[in-house]
Design the sequence.
């Protein structure tokens, strides 16, 4: 990956010089520059893009950047976390980010509904949570290089079987770490909690098992490399700084109710995410730890609908943008607004995909009812089995479960489910010595009534 160009240090001086000179050529360019600046502010562009786009508009890139810096600098707010050289992280909230924060407040801290504002049932909520947690565990692992397919990973989580390889172990670890975070919402963040989380995430997946459950030491040579060409794109701070950095990190994460200086929870969670990735406190598992802590802090602040948003899936689709958001911050005086804008965009896309997914699944459920409603071959037990599997397509039915639920003999339960498989409502699979029944082709197709 190409490292973004660092902004010129003398851009403000050049801008002020042009401003005071009032040269005719400069004045003619300023109306175009004003429009360019509005677009740049809206997208919060980095110098690496500004220099190219400004030149294409016939503008002086450095003078234009100088005006951008002059506008941003007074609004930047520092936080108690630091980059290299004890440089504090800083941020501002552009209009687009302000709007996204409003939408997150409105839509992700309230009630989960369909587009027609109908609240979902408890059963529907539970299945959407399971789907989201499975998806987050899988894509967070694949983002870190887990060698597995989504289908195999989902199969492992659904069947609760043991992992067959390191990639599946990474997925299982991620799933357990998310569950751990959900179970520790009333705990403050501490270095011990961080270590426990990293232990869960990396157990049985590292070439060097001694790197599990400990912070990196000075003799650990750690760099972040681009997987495509092995170029070093980030060198974390010296390990000797970690105790102080971790103390600040935990204080920042735990200060959510500090009314002396309010920081929006999404801003706080995103900066926490950034700082873990930047500090790289572990030899491995830093990215997964950072994303899990982002979830933990959002849920901790009452944004409970984040349980339904598999953020890592959006990152996985375009990992270069994720890395570039980090590099923009590091190359521009640790202005983490770039990372905040990236995170807000990912949340927006995840929110929209969740709504589309809910509508799709609710339609599937309604359509499935039309499929079996008038089928006179079905008894009440079979209709209940179809209802169970259409309301949770990832569910697995067994003969023993069907027998227990309806208090019938094994032969009757067996006949019920085998007939459903014969008629296409279920798919039968043999696992060892028993049959498992999954959603069948007739329900997957969901033809309109």
Sequence:
């Amino acid at each position: 990956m190409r490292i973004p160009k660092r902004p010129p240090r003398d851009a403000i001086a050049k801008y002020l010089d042009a401003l005071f000179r009032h040269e005719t050529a400069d004045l003619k360019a300023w109306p175009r520059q004003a429009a360019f600046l509005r677009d740049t502010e809206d997208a919060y562009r980095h110098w690496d893009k500004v220099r190219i786009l400004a030149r294409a508009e016939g503008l002086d890139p450095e003078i234009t950047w100088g005006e951008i810096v002059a506008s941003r600098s007074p609004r930047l707010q520092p936080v108690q976390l630091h980059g290299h050289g004890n440089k504090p992280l800083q941020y501002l909230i552009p209009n687009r980010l302000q709007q996204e924060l409003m939408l997150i407040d409105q839509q992700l801290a309230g009630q989960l509904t369909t587009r027609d504002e109908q609240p979902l049932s408890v059963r529907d909520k539970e299945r959407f949570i399971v789907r989201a947690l499975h998806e987050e565990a899988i894509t967070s692992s694949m983002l870190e290089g887990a060698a597995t397919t989504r289908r195999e990973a989902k199969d492992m989580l659904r069947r609760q079987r043991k992992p067959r390889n390191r990639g599946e172990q990474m997925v299982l670890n991620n799933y357990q770490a998310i569950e751990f975070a959900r179970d520790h919402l009333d705990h403050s963040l501490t270095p011990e909690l961080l270590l426990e989380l990293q232990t869960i995430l990396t157990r049985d997946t590292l070439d060097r098992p001694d790197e599990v459950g400990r912070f990196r030491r000075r003799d650990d040579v750690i760099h972040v490399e681009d997987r495509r060409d092995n170029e070093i794109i980030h060198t974390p701070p010296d390990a000797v700084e970690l105790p102080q950095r971790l103390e600040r990190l935990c204080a920042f994460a735990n200060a959510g109710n500090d009314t002396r200086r309010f920081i929006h929870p999404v801003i706080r969670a995103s900066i926490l995410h950034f700082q873990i990735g930047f500090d790289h406190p572990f030899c491995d598992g830093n990215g997964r730890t950072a994303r899990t802590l982002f979830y933990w802090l959002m849920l901790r602040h009452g944004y409970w609908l984040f349980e339904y948003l598999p953020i890592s899936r959006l990152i996985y689709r375009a990992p270069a943008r994720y890395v570039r958001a980090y590099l923009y911050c590091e190359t521009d005086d640790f202005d983490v607004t770039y990372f905040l804008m990236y995170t807000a965009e990912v949340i927006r896309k995840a929110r929209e995909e969740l709504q589309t997914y809910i509508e799709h699944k609710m339609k599937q459920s309604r359509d499935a009812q039309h499929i079996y409603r008038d089928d006179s071959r079905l008894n009440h037990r079979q209709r209940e089995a179809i209802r169970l599997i259409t309301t949770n397509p990832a569910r697995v039915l067994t003969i023993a479960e069907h027998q227990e639920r309806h208090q019938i003999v094994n032969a009757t339960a067996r006949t019920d489910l085998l007939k459903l498989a014969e008629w296409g409502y279920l798919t039968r699979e043999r696992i060892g010595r028993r049959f498992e029944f999954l959603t069948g082709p007739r329900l997957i197709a969901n033809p309109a009534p």
